[in-house]
Amino acid sequence: MAPTLLLAGISVLAASSAIAIRAAIIALMSGANKNKTCDAAVETMKAISYSQHGPADDVLTMTTDYPKPAPGKNDVLIQIKASSINPVDFKLRRNPVPDWLIPKPKIPGEDVAGIIVELGANVNKKSKFQIGDRVAAMLPIIRSKWGSAAEFVAVDASLVAKIPETVELESAAALPLVSLTVIQSLKKLKEPKGKKILIHAVLEEWALLPFNMPRTFWVCMWPRHPPRKKSKLSRSWGPI
Fold it and tell me: Which domains does the chain have, with CATH numbers?
């Protein structure tokens, strides 16, 4: 089964994208270092990658013989079934970024969902995960050449979570980056209970997440009416 590619959060406002980039980089600095244990094996796979920065049509290439990653001792190897695209992906690809920050060639994509097909030595001993587990992860944004636009990815087990059987892989692949952005941003509130939060970009993925969290934790309000085609859904939720 070929991996499914979702367009998650493509039209997020610039300010929101900046929050996502900052929060993700801070959260994953240590994870990016851990992921350096991932080495390339002799086997190959299908993957999309770029070796220089610029427009997608000019720099992205699709190959069928890209080196397949081999999991390090703390990694799990995931057969990718679904992935998603976030603003940070195309911004880092089209704008000049030094190789020490974004190693080349680079496979884009951070959000991934799939099936574990191999365990690193340390992961196997801990028995937290098993081969065949359905999992999702947010891959390191910086200092790693691996991404989710491929058939396989090796990622540190500490960045991986099991997917409940009731959740589809496509849905799980759209969650990691946007959900971490919301959670990390809202955690900065010292006493969030009862506070009102102004949410911009109605019906964007990151803006929807607070509505699925405990209502006693915070109160949300819309800044303006959404476009007509989206107004029916948003008005059914708020203002709260």
Answer: 4-178 (3.90.180.10), 191-235 (no CATH)
The rounded distance, in Å, linking the Cα atoms of 97 and 129 is 35
Residue with tokens 């941003």: 185
The DSSP secondary-structure symbol of 57 reads H
| pLDDT tens digits for range 169-215 | 998 998 888 888 777 777 776 655 666 666 655 555 444 555 455 44
Among 142, 48, 160, 202, residue whose Cα is nearest residue 210: 202
Number of H helices, E strands in the chain: 8, 10
From residue 135, how far is each of 54, 97, 121, 126, 165 by CA, in Å? 32, 30, 18, 17, 10
SS3 95: coil
Cα–Cα–Cα angle for 127, 119, 108, rounded to 5 degrees = 125
